[in-house]
Every structure is written in C-alpha cells, then in structure tokens.
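Notes from the 1:1 (GR / supervisor)

We went over the backlog. Supervisor wanted to see one worked example end to end before approving the batch request, so GR pasted a single chain during the call. The sequence is below; no edits were made to it. Supervisor asked that the structure be written out right there so they could see what the output format looks like.
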Amino acid sequence: MKIFTAFFLLSLLIPTLSFAADKDMPEQCRAFDPKWVASIDTEISRIREENGWMFESVQWEVFIPASHLEAIAIVESFCRNLTSSAGAKGCMQTKPMIMDELKMYGDLDDKYFSIQLAAHYLARLRDHYGYEIIEDYTVAYAEGPTGAKKVKDTYDHFYNRKLRCVYAKVPYRYDYSKLTVF
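Structure output shown during the call:
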C-alpha cells in the first residue's frame, strides 16, 4: 500500500515538475496538463479565424468582453461542438435548460447561437443573481448559480485558474474602447 501511495503522489507531482522546467510556460498555466496548454497555442488561430467575429458581435449585446467569451469557449471545448456526459452541448457547453430559463431557443450546435446563449446566461448571472465580479459569475456559469454560492474563493476556483491560463497564452486582440462595464 505504501508503494502504491508513493507512486500515486509522485504521479501527481510529475506534471507540475515538467511545467516548472519549461521556462516559456506562463506561471498561470503551470498547474495544468502540458498537452492542454500546448493545444491553446495550436487552436487559437483556428478559433479566431472561424469564430472571432461571433465573439466580437455578441459582446455588444450583453457587455461581456469578447476575450472572456473566447476564453470560456477554449476552456469548455476549444470552440468545438461537443456534448458532455452532463448534457451540456455546443461550443460553450451550455445545458438545454438554460434556453428555457432565458426563453432563447435555437440549435446548440450552431456556434453563433451557442456563444450568444452563453453570453446572455453570463449576463443574467451578473444582473439577476447579483454576481458583480467577473470571477463570481464565471464560477456561477461553471457550477450553476446555487453551486457558486458555496464557493468561498471564486478567484482561486479551478475554472477561473484555467481562464487565467488561457489569458496568459492568448494574445490580446479585442478593442474594448467602446465597451462600458456597469
């Protein structure tokens, strides 16, 4: 049993040690699987070429920054239409029940609709449920509005740490000079 425990603990440390050896790895990304982090670099060009206009367009509807929507799409599915074991669908991995809550209906496999639904849901979490800080309503997006109330430190939540890794890897691109934050 002791040998198994030692190997298990060592297996947890190995990814961290490999990150520490990589001097080009942003600090925010060192806790994550190196393959996932490397995928950010390889996928961002495709995501921006195919979907960048969608993020830019939707941000003005709800005043959620395009870069934040893009980062969520990267964390959720690398902006691919997937279906999770929990029933979340589309590139933003939203559940069909959110369509009922927002009274917005469409095909979750339509990337524009998926991004639009997710942005409106984030705005609802911000405006209706009282999550004022972006980290709070992003955790509510990941955990659900009631699940997020149980999280003591939203800034250090796993989901927000992944988003900060994406921000560190993805070059700044969007113009926010016209975006007003409430």
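Supervisor's comment: The longest helix spans residues 34-62.
Batch request approved.
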